[in-house]
Amino acid sequence: MAQLSMRIDDGVKKRAEIACEALGMTMTTAINIYLVKLGNEMRIPFDVSVDPFYSYENQKVLARSIGQLNAGHGTEHELKEVD
After folding, report:
1. Who's near 65: CB < 8 A, 6+ residues apart?
2. What angle do CA 83, 45, 17 make, to 5 degrees?
3. 61 to each of 44, 49, 58, 73, how far by Cα in Å?
4. Does some domain include residue 83?
5. Count of domains observed in the chain
6. Mutual angle of helices 27-41 and 10-23, in 10-degree steps
7. Which of 12, 68, 77, 83 keeps 20 to 30 A from 21, CA to CA?
8. Stated pTM of the model
9. How far is Cα 13 from Cα 28, in angstroms, rounded to an integer?
């Protein structure tokens, strides 16, 4: 068996551990599943794209809106589900 060593951001690792625990598997199992699919399919086994929610422009708008809400301006509402 080969051993793989890598550096991962602490927050990313913690969230991945929580997800793996919820799925009833170890991080090693999850990474092995990924690597097997990568090797078999010769592609990353999921879509890699940029979510526009995290764009710089959208984050500026959100930060400004949060600032307005915290200052007592604006209207707070419940989040709506999107299909």
Report:
1. 74
2. 80
3. 32, 21, 5, 15
4. no
5. 1
6. 90
7. 83
8. 0.59
9. 12
Distances (CA, A) of 53 to 6, 34, 67: 29, 26, 18
Q: Is residue 4 part of a domain?
A: no
Q: With contact defined as beta carbons under 8 Å apart, do 13 and 7 qualify?
A: no
- 55: which 2 tokens? 């764009």
**Furthest C-alpha separation in the chain:** 60
Specify the CATH number for the domain of residue 34: 1.10.1220
Q: Which residue type occupies 73?
A: H
> Which residue bears the tokens 């199992």?
29
Q: Contacts from 46-54 at CB under 8 Å and sequence distance 24+?
A: none
* Domain region containing 61: 10-70
Task: Examine residue 81 and state whether it is found in any structural domain, yes or no.
Answer: no
